[in-house]
Amino acid sequence: MSDKGSVVIDLKFERRDVDRALAGALAGRQVQHASDKSADLSNASYAFLWKPDLDLFERAPNLKVLFSGGAGVDSILATPGLPDIPIVRFVDDSLTTRMSEWVVLQCLSHLRQVPAYLVQQRSRTWKELPQPEAKDVTVGVMGLGVLGQDAARKLKVMGFNVIGWSRTAKAVEGIETYDSSGLDAFLARTDILVGLLPLTNETRGIFNASLFAKLRRDGALGKPVFINAGRGGSQVEPDLIAALENGVLGGASLDVFEREPLSPDSRFWSMDNVIVTPHAASASDVRALLRNAEVQMERFERGEPLQHVVDRTTGY
Ligand code: NDP
Ligand code: OXD
């Protein structure tokens, strides 16, 4: 029998995608699926989780390390009965690159008036709209972690003026940064606000009426724009809808929502100045997820420190 720790998978991805990714991965390890309710998970050392089953930790009481199926771990940290063992979050170029693509796409869409032109297209209206240059528009990125820093750099390449905000001070070349004490000064300069924050006690509801009112109002875009791909729990949706309706905000791009899937009754679907995507800004690639975790399992079994471990005090 292999002395490599065995694995249980509790990922809410399509089973066939997981099975395809498993071909050739986790060699020499027993792999079980939590969805197989008759499986004996008592020897499992590692679990891959994304919104875990409530009985997982009872069925697998000997886990040593948990691997998050995504970069965000709010749903794992909120799971009752969570054992006090390391949680490794997902960090991979495939995830980072896709997120930056989405962020750049949304910023350019609002800069180049895509929502307004789509409305005009539907009414067969030929009318040129004002066109500021990217260099005259400041994008403020809230959250300068793995995703925020990459997005900030790529926005810079597109010509935007980019600033960033994070809990602790960060140095990112070519980008002016603010720590948590500089929030108001950061907001006062921001024309397009990009949210790439984890959901924690501190960030829950941070995108609210008071914050939207502090964004720059005399910039090249006229009205500020809000873009969020962090977590929906960070946005106060009634405040956001009011800000979009009363002109405090000129537009929004939203990938995440307080409740997902977004209700068919939500106002967001029908707002002409809002772009909605279904929590798809950057989906985890299962193969990359397994490959990354395998590296960490080997480190762990050699007695080396794990990487990308969640800090339970800060909650991310
Ligand atoms: P990181 O942990 O690398 O970065 C988090 C950033 O947020 C850090 O800069 C951190 O500050 C900052 N931050 C956290 N709390 C606060 C606070 N209270 N005040 C100010 N700044 C704060 O995370 P990632 O960049 O990898 O991912 C960010 C989030 O993106 C994930 O948690 C997840 O929710 C979301 N996500 C969404 C996806 C989607 O498809 N929509 C896909 C992947 C991720 P500091 O640097 O000081 O620690
Ligand atoms: C993640 C996500 O956190 O997909 O990775 O939301």
Q: Can you give keywords for this protein?
A:
single chain, 316 residues, alpha/beta, Rossmann fold, 2 domains, binds NADPH dihydro-nicotinamide-adenine-dinucleotide phosphate, binds oxalic acid
Notes on the protein architecture:
The protein has 316 residues and is of the alpha/beta class. It starts with 5 loop residues before the first strand and ends in a 15-residue tail after the last helix. Helix content is 29%, strand content 15%. The chain has a seven-stranded parallel sheet with strand order 8-7-6-9-10-11-12. The longest helix is centred in the first third of the chain and has 19 residues, at 93-111. Helix 4 crosses helix 6 (146-157). Helix 1 (15-22) links the parallel strand 1 (6-10) and strand 2. Bound molecules: NADPH dihydro-nicotinamide-adenine-dinucleotide phosphate and oxalic acid. Residues 70-72, 95, 99, 143-148, 166-168, 170, 180, 196-200, 202-203, 229-231, 255-256, 279, 281-282, 316 line the site of NADPH dihydro-nicotinamide-adenine-dinucleotide phosphate. NADPH dihydro-nicotinamide-adenine-dinucleotide phosphate is lined by residues 70-72, 95, 99, 143-148, 166-168, 170, 180, 196-200, 202-203, 229-231, 255-256, 279, 281-282, 316.
List the helices and strands and how they pair.
Blueprint: E1 6-10, H1 15-22, E2 31-33, E3 44-49, H2 56-59, E4 65-68, H3 74-77, E5 87-88, H4 93-111, H5 114-122, E6 138-142, H6 146-157, E7 161-165, E8 176-178, H7 183-188, E9 192-195, H8 209-213, E10 225-228, H9 237-245, E11 251-254, E12 274-276, H10 286-301
Parallel strand pairs: 1-2, 1-3, 3-4, 4-5, 6-7, 6-9, 7-8, 9-10, 10-11, 11-12
Helix pairs in contact: 4-6
This protein binds NADPH dihydro-nicotinamide-adenine-dinucleotide phosphate and oxalic acid.
